[in-house]
Amino acid sequence: MPDVRLASPQGKWILLTTVLGSSMALLDSTVVNVALPHIGRDLGADLAALQWTVNAYMVTLAGLILLGGALGDRFGRRRIFVLGVLWFAAASLLCGLAPNAGVLIAARALQGVGGALLTPGSLALIQASFHADDRGRAVGLWSGFGGVGAAVGPFLGGWLVDGPGWRWVFLLNVPLALLCAPIALRHVPESSDQRAHTRFDALGAALCAAALALLTYALIEARTASWTVALSAVAGVVAAVAFVLVERRGKDPMMPLDVFSSRQFTAVNLVTLCVYAAFGGFFFLAALQLQVVVGWSALAAGTALLPTTVLMLLLSARSGELAERLGPRLQLTVGPLLCAAGMLLMLRVGPDASYLADVLPALLVLGFGMVTLVAPLTASVLAAVDTARAGLASGINNAAARAAGLVSVAALPLLTGMGEEAYRSPRAFDDAFGPAMLICAGVLVAGSVIAFTTVRRPAPDCPRPECRTHGSVLTPPLEQGARGTARDR
User: Fold this and answer.
1) Exposure on the CB side of residue 173, measured as CA atoms within 13 A
2) What is the C-alpha end-to-end distance of the chain, expressed in Å?
3) 138 against 182, higher pLDDT
4) pLDDT of amino acid 75
5) pLDDT band at 385 (very low <50, low <70, confident <90, very high)
6) 161: closest CA among 29, 32, 25, 56?
7) Under 8 Å CB-to-CB from 206, ≥6 apart: which residues?
8) For residues 22 and 122, is the Cβ–Cβ distance under 8 A?
9) Considering the entire predicted model, what is its pTM?
10) CA distances from 144 to 25, 121, 149 (A)
11) Please, which pLDDT band fits residue 460 given cuts at 50, 70 and 90?
12) pLDDT, tens only, 48-61
């Protein structure tokens, strides 16, 4: 049984290690969008290359994150976590030194592999190390400090882009890793799951990543209407079907399809796909809109987006408490509608927009909507499955959110008619930004309708989330497992 106490020196070192590791991934997911215009100008990249700069990372991360958690259970959580940290740092170094867009995109894909190893590992180390009496507080501190890192990300990214340059957005991960890895090796105890001696679903992970990559390619390059695009789309569909067949027939699938026999679990994941598709597209395009069209610096654009994360940090725990009293249905219905209203308010953000009059009201409404829906969304995912499968359910939900975001980033420019050079033209980008916000708002309304018609109040003794404080705007919290039932507490 884990017996490290939070107040002990070792407990503090473990907490620092996990915060540093998770902060690397959170920082990276929030700062890159702010750097995109500068990356494009410096490397002579078109809009498709900027889309791939975001999506190459998301493809490998979403496709491999479930496998990454299984590797830690089998070979040692600390070992896989440290491997992920060092891998992430090496890929970040390659990103920072990339001489062209092609190398940057390949390095971003490698970054996603490292992220898939370290992201589930940081929370798993807390679960496996701390005494049961301290575990809840340790998770709270971990998620809180991680949220602070997510909040600092856009501001720090903007400062780096305007100052030392966009390459430092990636190079910053190297010293963090060089600090994190030795601390982990010295102070974090090794742990594993003695029951995890089954085969790994490497084929399923490869098919999942391949399907995401091929379909993303087809969406990004669809404007060319070439045979390559058509073949990629067909191959992506074939890979997706093969993935489903492998998961259905495999002995040890990474995503057992019987978990979707719960109608509630399926419904909540459909809501997840809707809301995080909208969020992924919004934060990708909003960072560009504020710089390309409004004319703000990277620092100003990054700072402008902070209110959503700050509201999440301050109010997510209270939102979760409210959902426990009222049930999740009301918040999962109202939250997406508030987010849709926030995106409609962004239609006012054009040339010479005012931050106080135009941008801030939209972000505040969006932020309150996110606060309203994220905590009950996670609680509903956990409540829809048996306690023993809570970690699996959370992993699937987290991967679904990432996949929705990458599809949105790939599809929105196509659906709104953005040309390859649109981000270089304020007028062309602004003309496409409005329809994109309308599409995102429509997807959110669809998510609200699904929630209203399908989500039901969970049983009183269902698993409850451990991560009460959450700061990421692009993914729901990743739960290693459930804290237990109401009667356990």
Assistant:
1) 34
2) 19
3) 182
4) 87
5) confident
6) 32
7) 63
8) yes
9) 0.91
10) 15, 17, 9
11) low
12) 999 999 999 999 99
By C-alpha distance, which of 306, 284, 485, 291 is closest to 379? 485
Instruction: Quick: pLDDT tens for 207-261.
Output: 999 999 999 999 999 988 789 999 999 999 999 999 999 999 877 888 888 889 8
What residue type is 395 in one-letter code? G
175: pLDDT confidence band, cut at 50, 70 and 90? Answer: very high
How far is Cα 275 from Cα 391, in angstroms, rounded to an integer? 21
Kindly tell me if the per-residue pLDDT of 80 is higher than 90. Answer: yes
Q: Rounded to the nearest 5°, which phi and psi values hold at 170?
A: -90, -40
Beta bridge partners of 130: 4
Burial of 298-317, coded b for 16+ CB within 10 Å and e otherwise, reads: bbbbbbbbbbbbebbbebbb
Output the pLDDT for position 487. Answer: 32
Rounded alpha-carbon distances, angstroms, from residue 32 to 4, 115, 169, 322, 327: 36, 15, 7, 34, 36
Residue 281 CA to residue 275 CA, distance in Å, equals 10
pLDDT tops 60 at residue 484: no
More confident residue, 384 or 60: 60
Q: Which two tokens stand for residue 214?
A: 């091929």
